[in-house]
Amino acid sequence: MTTTLAPLTEPWSPAEFEARLRAVGEGRYHDRHTFNIRMHQGDLTQAEVRRWITNRFHYQRHIPVKDALITAKLDSPRLRRMWLRRIEDHDGRSEGEGGIERWLRLGEAAGLDRRTLLSGEAVLPGVRLAVEGYVNFCRLRSPLEAVAASLTELSAPDLMRTRIEAFERHYRWIAPEGLAYFRTRVDQGRRDSGEALELVRQWARTRTDQEKAVAALSFKCDVLWSLLDAVQHADGQGQDGSRESM
Amino acid sequence: MTTTLAPLTEPWSPAEFEARLRAVGEGRYHDRHTFNIRMHQGDLTQAEVRRWITNRFHYQRHIPVKDALITAKLDSPRLRRMWLRRIEDHDGRSEGEGGIERWLRLGEAAGLDRRTLLSGEAVLPGVRLAVEGYVNFCRLRSPLEAVAASLTELSAPDLMRTRIEAFERHYRWIAPEGLAYFRTRVDQGRRDSGEALELVRQWARTRTDQEKAVAALSFKCDVLWSLLDAVQHADGQGQDGSRESM
C-alpha cells in the first residue's frame, strides 16, 4: 500500500489565504476601537478630536519613511515605481500637495496650528512608540512582511467613507475642505490594497510565509490599535491635559 | 590679560570645507584608476569592455536601492521629493525608461545579453562586496554621511564627457545609441551634485561633521576604486575567464 504523505503544513489555497488576511482586518482593525466608535458616533469633544488629529499626524508623516524603506527592499524598477507612487501620494509632486499637506489642512480646519503640528511636541509617548515600532518593522522585516503589514488598506476605504459622513454630521465646526485627506484616501486605499494583496499572494507560496503575512497584518492592526489606546487614555494626564486647557 | 580660547577644532570655513571635499574627488576618484585610464585611451579589449559593463551594471541597479534608503532618512516632503527624483532617474517613470534600462541597452549595444545582465551571474566577488558595502553605508550611516558619499557626482559629469568621446573614438563596435546613459548623466550629475553639496554644507556645521562628510566621500571613492580593481584583476581567473571565452 502506498500513501502520499502531505507535508505537515500545506499552503492554504489562495482563497483561504485571502480569507484569513481579511479576517484579521475584520477582527482587529481599529474601526472597532472604542475611540473610533465614539468618533464616528459624534461623542468626541473638540479637544479629543484635536488630540486625535495631532497624534495621528505623527503616524501620517512617517508613512513615506516606511514606504521608502519598503522601496529599498524591492528588486525591480517596476515594483519600486509602484511604491514610489505611494510616497508621492503623501509627499506630493510639488510643495503644497500630497497627503501630509492635506492632513495639516485638516488640523488647521480643526483650529490647530500648523507649526505646533510640525513641531511634534504634543505627540503622546504611546503614539511615538507605535509609529517607531511600525517603521522599524518595515526596516527590519522581509519584503513580504513589510508589504503584508500595509494590508490594513483593505479595510481603510470603508472606514474613510464612514468617517467623512460622521465628520460632516457630527463635527460641523470643522470646515468641509478640511476633510480632503479622507476623500482622497478612498480611491488611493483601494488601489494600494489591491496591488499589495496581489504581491503578498504571489510571494507567500509556503504555509510558513502565509502565516508570516497574516502575523504581519495582525502586528499592523496592533500598531493602529495602540495609537488609539494612547489617544483614548490621555485624558487629564499631565502634558496632554495641560495642552488641552490652552 | 584675557585670551579667547578657540575650540580645539573650529569648523572649516564654507570655502575650505568645499575645497577639501573637492580635493577628495581630485585625489581619489576612479578616473585615475588604471582600468579607467586604459578604457579612455582605447586600450581595452572587447572582452574587457563587456566585463566592465556587466559588473558596473551590478552597481547601477543598486543606485535606486541606496537612494530609497537615503529617502527614508529625510524628514521633510521637500527633501524626499529631491531624492525621489533620483530614484526615478534610474528606474524611469514607466517601463522601458530610466538609467537602468539605458545601461541594459549599452550592454546590448556591446553584444551582451539582457537576460545575462539581469541574472547577475557574471558579477565578480569584489564587485558584489563593493556594492554591498556602499548600500549598507547608506543604510546605516547618518543622512549627512549618506548624502556626502553621493558627492562623487561632483566629478562625474567631466568623466562622462571624456567617456563619450573615448567610446565614440575607440570602441566603434558599440553603436552610438548605446551611449545614451552617459549622455543623460552629464546634466543629471551636475544637478544632483549641486543639490547634495548644498545639503552637506548646510548640515555639517561642526568640524566633526565636516570631517565625517569628507570621510564619507573618501569611502565612496574607495567603493568605485575597488569595483575597478576587481574588474581589472579578473583576467583569466576561473569563472570570469571562462565566461569571456564564450
From TrEMBL, chains A, B:
It catalyses: 6-(2-amino-2-carboxyethyl)-7,8-dioxo-1,2,3,4,7,8-hexahydroquinoline-2,4-dicarboxylate + 3 O2 = pyrroloquinoline quinone + 2 H2O2 + 2 H2O + H(+). Keywords: Oxidoreductase, PQQ biosynthesis. The keyword Oxidoreductase applies. It comes from the Bacteria. It is an enzyme of class 1 (oxidoreductase). GO terms for molecular function: pyrroloquinoline-quinone synthase activity. Its EC number is 1.3.3.11. The keyword Oxidoreductase applies. InterPro entries: Haem_Oase-like_multi-hlx, PqqC, PqqC-like, Thiaminase-2/PQQC. GO terms for biological process: pyrroloquinoline quinone biosynthetic process. Residues 19-229 form the Thiaminase-2/PQQC domain. Pathway: Cofactor biosynthesis; thiamine diphosphate biosynthesis; Cofactor biosynthesis; pyrroloquinoline quinone biosynthesis. Belongs to the PqqC family. Ring cyclization and eight-electron oxidation of 3a-(2-amino-2-carboxyethyl)-4,5-dioxo-4,5,6,7,8,9-hexahydroquinoline-7,9-dicarboxylic-acid to PQQ. This is Pyrroloquinoline-quinone synthase.
